[in-house]
Amino acid sequence: MTQLTGKRVAILATDGFEQSELLEPMRALREHEAEVDVVSPKGGEVQGFKHFDKGQAVPVDVELAQADAARYHALVIPGGLFNPDSLRVDEQALAFVRAFFEAGKPVAAICHGPWVLANADVLEGRTVTSVPNIRRDLENAGAKWVDEEVVVDEGLVTSRTPDDLPAFCAKLVEEIDEGRHAGQKRSAA
After folding, report:
1. What's the pLDDT at 6?
2. What is the DSSP string of 20-33?
3. Mean residue pLDDT across the chain
């Protein structure tokens, strides 16, 4: 089994994340011995959802204002509707995302999560997937959108829905194990 011992991963989330899209990647990363921090613009806890119903709240480990992308080996952005919609208009969140691309580190986003990448201006020339209803937004940001369970483009891992979580988590672990991705730099703003 791949071990991610010594690797630290940030999960960027705020209220309204899709519960499985945060908890499943967190579980997979921890099973492979990675350290995982939930990073959020707010302190305390962030509220998860199971589709449209309130789900589990998750403690915030690091407030975004104190988060340093240089301390992390990779970034995960869960979906849900409200989580990425809030993050994509948060300049501090967008700067945090761009720092991972500029450093060539793996980034993973699922469902509506790629909305944040579109607003961070890091999708030009990239092949991605997502929940179908944000396809046009991603294409307008310069991405080529495909309908596949998981897409990997030079360290950028994207998936469509919670049904794709097994493939998403497997590719996330694989990309973090590989480490740096020089191709990330080509699309940085």
Report:
1. 95
2. HHHHHHHHHHHHTT
3. 94
Task: Give the integer Cα–Cα distance in Å for 73 and 62.
Answer: 15
DSSP state of 16: T
32, 51, 73, 112: the active-site residue: 112
In the residue annotation, 111 being an active-site residue is answered as: yes
Average pLDDT (164-183) is 87
**At the top level of CATH, which class does the domain 8-184 belong to?**
alpha beta
Cα angle for residues 188, 165, 120 (degrees, 5° grid):
20
Distance of alpha carbon 83 from its chain centroid, rounded? 11
State the burial class of residue 71 (Cβ atoms within 10 Å of its Cβ: 0-12, 13-18, 19+): exposed
Q: Residue 189: what pLDDT?
A: 38
Output the pTM of the full model: 0.94
- Give the 3-state secondary structure percentages of the chain, helix then strand then coil, rounded to 5: 40, 25, 35
Catalytic: which of 73, 111, 169, 181? 111
130: which 2 tokens?
């997502």
